[in-house]
Amino acid sequence: GGGDQNVSADLTNARLDIPWAGWSKGAGVPANVTFVMTKSGDTTTLSDFDLDGKSFSVDGSIVLVNGALSSARFSKVTLNRGDDVAVSVKRSGKGYAVDISGNALDARSLIKQFTSDVDTATKTTGSDAISVSADVDQLTGFHDEQLSNLKLDYSAAGSRVNGLKVSATASSGAAISISNTTGAGQRSLNMQSADAGAILRFLNIYEHMEGGTITLALAGPSEGSLRGKVDTSNFFVVNEPKLASIVSTTPAGDNRSLNQAVKGKLDTSRVKFERGYAEIDKGSGYLKLANGVLRGPRIGTTFQGTLYDQNNNMDMTGTFMPVYGLNRIFGELPIVGALLGNGRDRGLIGVTYRLKGNANKPLLDINPLSVIAPGIFRSIFEYR
What we know:
There is one protein chain. The protein is mainly β. It folds into three domains: 1-66, no CATH class; 80-224, no CATH class; 227-384, no CATH class. It has helices spanning 108-115, 118-121, 196-202, 241-248, 258-261, 334-340, 374-381, and strands at residues 4-10, 16-18, 23-25, 31-40, 43-53, 57-65, 68-78, 84-92, 95-106, 129-140, 146-157, 160-170, 175-183, 186-193, 209-210, 213-221, 226-238, 270-283, 286-295, 299-308, 313-322, 349-358, 363-366, 370-371. The strands form two sheets. The chain has a 22-stranded mixed beta sheet that branches. β2 (16-18) and β3 (23-25) form a beta hairpin.
C-alpha cells in the first residue's frame, strides 16, 4: 500500500557502523533518527532522513528496493566535528558507488583504518565492491596537518583494494600524490611529495620530520608482501627523542657519551639531513627495513632490521657517527688517522646501537665508542 509514515526512533542503544569510513557509534551513545517512509511496490523511500547525535549528523534521503539499499543522497554529513560534505551512494552491480564532495572532512578515522594495516583494515568492508570518488577542499589529518584540494578515486572488492589515486596540496603549497594500482596479480603502491614532513604527519606515520621531498615505491603480488624503497632528501629531523638518546647515553663500559666525546657539538633538537634511504619489506602486520642510510652535514647513520612485527616488537641495529667535513680528524684520535691511512675515512668515532622491544617504547642499547669501520662510513657517503 501507499501512504506516508512518520518514523522517529531513539538509537542510543544501537550500534551504528560505516566500515569503509572507519566510523562507528557504540551502544549507549545518544542518537535519534527521524524520517518519512513512503512505500510503493517493492520500493521504500525514506525522505527527510535526519540522524542526530552529539558530534555527528546525517541529513538526506534513502531509497530501498526489496529492503536493500538502492541509493542515498545526503546533503550534509558530519561524522566528526568540523565535517561538511555531501555524500551520494548508488547501487552499481553487486556493489556501491560513493561520491563525496564539500568543504571539509576529518580524515583521521579513515587514515587509521588504512594505515593500521591495509590487510586488516579492508577486511571489514564486507564482500561488496565499492568505489569512492571524493573532491574535498580541506582535509584534516593527524598532528593538526591539513591538506587542500583533495581529489581521490578509490575502488575495492571485499578485502582487496583495486585502485587508489589521491592528489592534494600540503599547507606549504607542496603537491602530494599517492597511487595504488593492481593488475595481473600484481600490486604497486607509489607516493610522492615535495613536503615529506607534512604527509608523514598527516598520515600519523612520523611526526619529527620537517620539509624534504619523498618518493616511496613498493610492489608485489596482490595478495602478498610489498617490497621497494623510500627515498627522501633535504629535510630536518626535529626533537627526535631516539636521536637525543643515542647521542647523550653513556654506553656500558665507557666513561663518556658520544656528545661528550665530540665536546658537545651535537645538537639533536633540529638536525639537517641531505639524504635518507631505506629498502622496505611490508607484509601483514610487519615492516622491515634494510640498507638504511641517513646522511647530513653533522650526522651520518646506517640502520636495518624490523621496525615492527606482528606482536608490535622492534629489533633495529645501526651505526651512528658525527661528521664534521669528510676529512677532518678528531683532535683526540690522531693515531687512528695514521692507522687508517690517507683515505677519506680517517678517524671517525661513532657508536653502534640496537633498538629492541615494544615498538612504541623500544629499549636502546649502545656499544662503547669505537672507530667506525671505513666500509660503513663509505656506505653512507658514497650512497647516491
